[in-house]
């Protein structure tokens, strides 16, 4: 009996040893202070980098909410005005979209012209787009028009400066309506019997903010033509093809159109036989009201 009791206690002790979990030695955890400092440093570096990049290249939305102020447009008599306009003209002639249009398979079906080139000075000064709105920082260049020879559609290339803004950095909606009225009107009027017309209505939908100081293109197409009325549609796009404004319009030929001077209208719109078509602006044409010697004085 004694032997059995001793044996029982031994087996019980062995069983307890096997079922009791073994406690392993765990080294104390390493200090986390260095990791915390590293995280703070990386966060600070990231914030600083984001601030610097945001200042140099602000997102479009930020420019709308906190626009940057810009210097006023140059006065036409400023010595820097001539070189500024010439640089813009070089940029216009180098636009990829214009180059593609000139080299397209159907390029022979189109012609180029520069409206307002032959307008006398006494009429030019009282014109809105080529008079009051002409100059550095505004509508600095005469529009370059590429139109189909059948006058069914046209492309009008323009540069919009920072002096025609509503909200800082964004072109005024009224200015966009003005250039659409002229761009669509040119196509419509060319399809009217007497090549003379006035705006009957103009319906505009603004699709995206139009940033200032950029080239845009007006694309216009003729719709229906019925007697003295012509319907036309079009849009303004940036150089990446983004639609900024869409519009439809109706132009009406006045009943007294036969009494009007049609040559004046042709001078305003340009025509296929314009010898200045597609040619870059030369210095004497930048500001017809001033000669070269006057600007240099």
Give a brief outline of the structure.
Helix content is 36%, strand content 20%. The protein is α+β, with helices and mostly antiparallel strands and 297 residues long. InterPro entries: HotDog_dom_sf (IPR029069), PTE-AB_protein (IPR052061), Thioestr_dom (IPR006683).
> What's the total number of strands?
7
- The CATH homologous superfamily is named Hotdog Thioesterase
Shape: elongated
Portion in helices: 25-40%
Q: Low-confidence segments, ≥5 residues, pLDDT <50?
A: 281-297
User: Taking Cα atoms only, what radius of gyration do you get, to the nearest Å?
Assistant: 36 Å
Strand order across the largest sheet: 1-2-3-5-6-7-4
Question: Structural class per helix/strand content?
Answer: alpha+beta
CATH topology: Thiol Ester Dehydrase, Chain A
Tell me which oligomeric state these chains represent: single chain
- CATH-scheme architecture: Roll
Instruction: Count the DSSP helices.
Output: 10
Ends apart, CA distance between termini: 133 Å
- Beta-strand content estimate: 15-25%
Question: Mean of residue pLDDT?
Answer: 81
Largest sheet: 7 strands, antiparallel
SSE ordering:
HHHHHEHHEEHEEEEHH
Q: What is the domain total for the residues?
A: 1
CATH class descriptor name: Alpha Beta
Structure characterization notes:
- The structure is a single chain.
- With 297 residues, the protein is α+β, with helices and mostly antiparallel strands.
- The chain has a single domain (81-296), classed as Thiol Ester Dehydrase, Chain A (Roll).
- The chain is 36% helix and 20% strand.
- It is built from 10 helices and 7 strands.
- It comes from Neolentinus lepideus HHB14362 ss-1.
């Amino acid at each position: 009996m004694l032997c059995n009791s001793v044996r029982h206690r031994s087996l019980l002790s062995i069983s307890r040893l096997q079922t009791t979990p073994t406690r392993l030695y765990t080294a104390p955890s390493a200090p986390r202070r260095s990791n915390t400092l590293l995280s703070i440093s990386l966060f600070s570096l990231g914030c600083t980098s984001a601030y610097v990049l945001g200042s140099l290249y602000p997102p479009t939305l930020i420019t709308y909410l906190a626009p940057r102020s810009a210097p006023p447009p140059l006065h036409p008599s400023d010595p820097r005005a001539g070189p500024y306009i010439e640089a813009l003209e070089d940029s216009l002639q180098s636009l990829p979209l214009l180059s593609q249009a000139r080299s397209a398979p159907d390029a022979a079906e189109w012609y180029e012209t520069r409206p307002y080139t032959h307008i006398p000075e006494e009429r030019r000064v009282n014109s809105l787009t080529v008079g009051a709105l002409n100059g550095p920082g505004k509508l600095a260049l005469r529009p370059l028009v590429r139109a189909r020879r059948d006058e069914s559609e046209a492309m009008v290339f323009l540069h919009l400066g920072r002096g025609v803004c509503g909200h800082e950095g964004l072109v005024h909606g009224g200015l966009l309506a003005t250039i659409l009225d002229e761009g669509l009107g040119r196509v419509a009027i060319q399809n009217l019997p007497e090549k003379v017309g006035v705006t009957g209505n103009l319906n505009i939908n603004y699709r995206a903010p139009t940033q200032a100081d950029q080239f845009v293109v007006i694309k216009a197409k003729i719709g229906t033509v019925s007697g003295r009325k012509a319907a036309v549609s079009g849009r303004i796009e940036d150089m990446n093809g983004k639609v900024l404004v869409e519009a439809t319009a109706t132009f009406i030929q006045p009943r007294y159109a036969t009494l009007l001077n049609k040559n004046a209208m042709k001078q305003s719109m340009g025509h296929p036989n314009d010898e200045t078509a597609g040619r870059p602006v030369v210095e004497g044409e930048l500001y017809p009201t001033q000669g070269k010697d006057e600007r240099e004085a």
